[in-house]
Amino acid sequence: MNTNPRLDPIHSAPNPRSAYSTWVMCGLLTLALSRFASAADQPFAELLEKANKGDATAQFEVAREYAAGQGVAKDDAEALGWFKKAAAQGHTKAEVSLGSIYAHGFGVPADFVESIRWYRLAAAKGDTTAQHNLGLDYAHAHGVELDPRQAARWFRKAADQGHARAQFNLGELYEAGKGVPQSNLEAFILYSLAGEHENQEHIFGKAKADEVIANRIRTEQKLTPEQRTEATRRIAAAKALMAVHPRKFGAPGMIGRSRGWWVWKKWNPETWEAEVTPDPPGEVIRVRVLPWATTYRHLAYGARFDQLVPGEKMNMFFDPDENHRRGYVVHFQDEISQMKGHGHFWKIFTFTDPKTFVAQVYAGEKPLEEKKHSFEIDPACQNWSAGKLVNRMPLKPNDHVYMTWVYRDNRRVVLLLADDASLETLKELETKRINGEIAAEGLAGQTETIEKDQVQFMVYSSYWAQSGKLQPNQTVTIATTGPGYRPTDVRFAGKVISQKNRGVYGSGVNDVMLQLDKPEDAVKVSELEGQVLRLIPGK
User: What is the model's pTM?
Assistant: First the structure.
């Protein structure tokens, strides 16, 4: 596994021959005519009342009603006004709508500069429609100078998230060698990815859907047998990575196709590969850990994987890679976090000597499973009672406890034992430890956009709890990473302008706008786009 890969495994890029106006208009019509399920059954008067009270989502819905003439007479001017109100509050889809409105002059004079301004705002948040349309602007010199390299850059961002039309355009650029090195292999991979989406005619239109197929067939015929084999592997790998794109973390149901209790066996901090086995131990499976995987240990978010102990039982979430349905680790919770979060605990049944006891998992007054288990207390076990570290845990039958324990030759050995009254102390200690690591090594993430001396840095969901504490004018340092994604000495100083979490429940990526201390560093930082970096907070 590459220790610091670019996050665009399909390498990618777009094409000026695309039907710009048709595709951008389709984006606006989709926004105008489709309706969110949350608002679909609400009468227009009810939506309007919420919109007048300042609800951005309702403002956007009202704008779409006016734009489409659904529930109210069609009125482009009213639609524009409500789109602007929603966009003023940072509503991403409203920003995309305004970009399309100004690109086509729906109720206003066409203005590509204004269109691009709105697209940039939405694209910086990861919106694939806006990213794709910016690519089209650069590919066709609409409001900007013709720049195939910039077109490729924006199409790539959308393609990595699975945007079909961006994938197609990237393929055309690779086939033509515009803005990117000419490569029939890259073009075929991208055409293949674009052609595997459902509802091709809905996405592309009949003529373009046929062109996707024709381009794929044409480029495949130019490949060697070895290249075809490589393409098969890379198409599968690209689809797997699209499913776990960093921006999908924090959205309900987007990650964690399989989950369960697993035992952590071995960890390679240089490659971020691990070995895990089911509970009880059996077949050993090698997995890849994503640098943006989320963690929850001792009731605190942001723990590192090298804190896990060989033999420790973990509740782990996986997504398939190109080889295995448990190819990527996307989340873990230790047993203490999982049990406390679900109201579970270990209930002591017998405690006959200082070293062994028998316990069973309970949920409230009922056992969660019928089987009881024997445990040995390690001589170095940490014993927490009433929030204090004690020499010996005063266990007795019917006590409720939480544990960190490991398998050793099929024996269950306890390394930490705590009562309920001690969990808040454990959380505080873990939070302090994590904060110390962050102060030294920073928050993992990547640069998203760079305009003059301002950088938008996307902090991965791993650190959603910590990145939300960044404050305007706080000093920060962007550091490149080496093996194991650890920071190097190549660093760039700046300060925080603003930060915004993008997760539905607060646990998603955090977009942090930064201003570089030295404007000349912008070129160097732009060259790091797509790499895993570290944002190290200052005082």
Answer: 0.89
